[in-house]
Design brief:
The chain is an all-alpha fold and 111 residues long.
Amino acid sequence: MVASFAHAKMLCKIEILSGKELKKIQHGLTQILQLNVKGKFSLQFGEEDIHSKIENYLTDNYGEVGKKIHTGRSRNDQVLTALRLFSKQEIFSIWEEVLMLQIVLSVCAKV
């Protein structure tokens, strides 16, 4: 979702989206995040993938502007970006756990 926010800002910067359209997309993406937290935004049987679901949600709720969210971005770009962001997040989580383990080990070593 972070990538979609950034992509929308870029589309506005190069004037594919107007400022008003950017606000609509940002609002829609925020709604999607809120729905996801509540467990109300997940893929259903027959839906292609999460990227299509996001585009469909934006289009259904905000009109034609929703179709612009993926302008200049292929499905492969979207998937690769999502995987990279997920991987970075997971690596950071592991790093935090390793630091905690280091602290625990150093405390145990002093005992």
